[in-house]
């Protein structure tokens, strides 16, 4: 696994996206420069930080090997960037771990966001089925990992700030992840489209006879279309090629601008009290 490259770009993309959330367009303030030191104290509600590694609780229950040094350093940069613009009521730990399944999760109990190494491998396998160039596969994996991290960040923020979320939380945090990826640039749209394609690939394994109707996640193909709708809605002109056969049907596409506006407005309103300006 070429984690250094992947996570470096992961970080670069996150920088780009978080700049949009805290930046001039949305809040009328310039984008704050990343702060190397602890951001606690800048915001009255900021009592915690994103930290890298396993939480003290996890370490006590199940002593784990430390993350590799390079990956730890990259995660630290991500954590520092998140700390510079998001207030937290307590510390939340970001880590990579071996999980015996391709997954990623936020645990309220241990206060951790974990991305499994197996998930990175799964994404790589998935994208290799549609793309020959390793360089492009790597890009697709990186984009999808960022989406995954932002999705888990959404679960985390709903939990720690007790944010209201009616309807399916899984759909709500998918929306947040996509909105964060969509920074207005063509690269942002490309990243979100790549992440959406992973859902389309995953949907190939969902057969009508064994659909998990009880699952809290929407079906992969629905998540694919929901993401495409937000991408298209964020900039219909730039993304007009997303509408058509095997892509977004016109019937859905015509309402996507409004859908994007409402989703973005909702998340920005929910997060506004916790954004460090
Ligand atoms: Zn989730």
What does this structure look like?
The protein is an alpha/beta fold and 277 residues long. It has one domain (3-203, 214-274). The protein has helices at 3-22, 24-27, 56-61, 69-85, 117-128, 134-160, 169-181, 186-203, 220-234, 250-253, 256-271; strands at residues 50-52, 92-97, 104-107, 112-116. Strands 1-2-4-3 form a 4-stranded mixed beta sheet. α1 (3-22) packs parallel to α4 (69-85). The longest helix has 27 residues, at 134-160. The structure holds zinc ion.
Number of extended strands: 4
Proportion of residues in extended strands: 5-15%
How large is the count of helical segments? 11
The distinct bound ligands, ions and cofactors come out as: zinc ion
Mean of all residue-level pLDDT scores: 86
* Low-confidence parts: 1-36
Structural class: alpha/beta
Helix content: 40-55%
State the end-to-end CA separation. Answer: 37 Å
Global shape = globular
| Total count of domains | 1
How would a textbook summarize the main sheet? 4 strands, mixed
Rg over CA atoms, rounded to whole Å, is 18 Å
H/E topology pattern = HHEHHEEEHHHHHHH
Task: Walk across the major sheet and give the strand order.
Answer: 1-2-4-3
